[in-house]
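Justification of computing resources. Each target in the renewal requires a structure prediction run like the one illustrated here; the chain below, 148 residues long, is used simply to show the kind of job we budget for.
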Amino acid sequence: MQGMPFHDYNESLSLVGAPGMFASCGPVPFARLASLLLVLPGVRHGLRALVQQYAFRCGVVLEVAVEVDSLRALCDIVAGGEGYTVLPATALAGRKDLVAVPIVDPVPSRSLVLARSRGDAPDSAATAVMGLIRDELMATEPSGAGAD
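Resulting structure tokens:
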């Protein structure tokens, strides 16, 4: 497999909860996550590893109440008011039962890459699909601009 960067597309991670769980919809400092009950993927999941790296850098110990690797189950638990999670806004497309607020100081983010088999350059169909995926990601980003 070979990874191809998505034109330096970075997606920010947000604090996600059920409507009404936030005192305001303003940004939340990363350190605040230490005081929240979190629902996160298991320790082997890349998103969990990334969140834990940010916590370590900030000197924050996170309280993970529930570990679940299914995105749907994770979102359903949080939508039921059973805690908060950390996800990119793109993961919430179409979910009216969840609210995402930005995390700041620092802003956790991850780079997206598209993996493909080594070998020949992508044909026109593969290039078109990559363009559609990029466009969809850009349209889903709350600010409308996911690229740095």
